[in-house]
C-alpha cells in the first residue's frame, strides 16, 4: 500500500476545520441608537418541515441505473411523493397560521419535481395556511437533474433562479413585502407584527446554467447589506423577526465546522452575531437532515440565537415541527413524525430507520475503503458510525459508554479511527437545548 497520498488526505481532513466562522459584527450607529427598542413577538402558531427532496416517480424508480443511485443515497426517494402528501395532510389538519419549508424541495432541482411540489403545497394554501419556502442547495441549476431508465440516466430540465421564484410565487415570492434584488431572499409578514426573513444561502449562481451543485452555503455581501436594512426597519416599525435558511447558522455538534463545514453557512459566527444583535432569536434551518436545536450566546449586549434545524421528511425519523409563540414571549416547539404513508402499513417507521442505517453503513464502507482501511475492519466500524449518525438525526442523543471501538485491527485502522473519533463523538453529543420538545425564552 502507498501511504503517501492517503496520509496527505488524512492530514487535510484533520486540518479541514480552519474555515472561518467570521469575525465579530460591528453594530451600525443606527442600530446602537435603536438598541433599547424591544419588539414583542405576536402570538403565532406555525409548522416547519424541511428537505422533502421530492422525486416524481414518473422519472423512473426501477432498473439498474436507479437502483445504483439509491445504493449511494440514503433518502426515501421512491416514497417522497407519499411523504410530502402525508406532511401536507397532517399539517393541513392543524390549527396553524402558516408553514415554513427550509429548502431542498426536490431531489436535484428537476423542473417537474418543483412543479409537483408546488401542486402539493398549494393544498395547504387552499386550506388557508400560507406556505413560505427558501431554496436548498439541490434545488437550482443542478446538472444532476436526471431521469432513470434501465441501465442509463438522462438529463431532464432543471430550473433557473428566476424560474424557482416563478414556480413558488404562491409560497412567499408573490406576497413578499420586499425581495432582495441580489438573491432569492425575501421578507414576508405571515402574522401581523411578525416578520419572516427568508434567506437564500445557496450558491447556485456559481454553478452556471447547468453545473455541479455546491453543497456549501453563503450569504453574499449585497444580501448582508439588504438584511441589515430590513432588520433596522423592523426595529423602527416594532416588528419581531424570525429567519429561515437552508444552511445551519450555529454549530450543531462539536467539530461541526471541521468535519461538515459545508452544512453551515459561511461566516456563521458573524451572521449569527448580526441577526441576534438586531433582536432575532430563532432561525429555522435544514440541510443536514437532523432534528437538532443549538444555541449560541453573544456578548455586549448578551443575547442568544437558536438554530432550530428540522430533519428531512425523506429521512428517518421523518419529522416536522409545530411552533407556538405565546403571550409570555416564549416559543414552545413540539415535534411530530410521519409514521404512516400510503402504500405502507405500520411498519413504515421501522423501514425508514433501517433505510438510513443501512445507507450510512454503505457510505461508511466507501469512506473507509478510500482511506485504505482493510475490508475486514469495515464490518466492525461502519455499523458503529451508522448508529452514531442515526442517533444524531433523531435528536436528544444519549452518548454510549464507548463511542468507537475495534478489536484486532492494525495501526493504520487505529490511525483512521483516531482521526474520525471527534466526528463520531460529536454526533453523540447533544448540545443544549433539547431537540424535539422544548421551550425557548424569547426575551433575554
Ligand atoms: Fe437535503
Ligand atoms: Fe441540503
Question: What's the gist of this structure?
Answer:
With about 450 residues, the chain is of the alpha/beta class.
Describe the structure.
This protein is an alpha/beta fold and 444 residues long. The protein folds into two domains: 41-342 and 437-441, Purple Acid Phosphatase, chain A, domain 2 (4-Layer Sandwich), CATH 3.60.21; 352-428. Helix content is 35%, strand content 17%. The protein has twelve helices and 15 strands. The protein has helices at residues 3-14, 29-34, 64-71, 80-92, 111-126, 161-167, 221-237, 256-260, 268-277, 348-370, 375-394, 411-428, and strands at residues 44-49, 98-101, 131-133, 146-149, 152-155, 178-179, 186-191, 194-198, 240-244, 282-285, 292-298, 303-309, 319-325, 330-337, 438-441. The strands form three sheets. It has a seven-stranded mixed beta sheet with strand order 6-7-8-9-10-12-11. A six-stranded mixed beta sheet has the order 3-2-1-13-14-15, with helices on one face. A hairpin with a 4-residue loop joins β11 and β12 (303-309). α4 packs parallel to α5 (111-126), α10 (348-370) crosses α11 (375-394) and α11 runs parallel beside α12. The protein is globular. The chain starts with a helix and ends with a strand. Bound molecules: fe (ii) ion (2 copies). One fe (ii) ion binds next to loops.
**Helix- and strand-based class?**
alpha/beta
Present as ligands are:
fe (ii) ion
Q: Please provide the ordered H/E string of secondary-structure elements.
A: HHEHHEHEEEHEEEHEHHEEEEEHHHE
- Largest sheet, strands/sense/barrel: 7 strands, mixed
CATH topology of the largest domain: Purple Acid Phosphatase, chain A, domain 2
Name given to the CATH architecture of the largest domain: 4-Layer Sandwich
The DSSP helix count reads 12
Shape: globular
- How widely separated are the two ends? 57 Å
Low-confidence stretches: 11-19
Number of domains: 2
User: What is the quaternary state of this protein?
Assistant: single chain
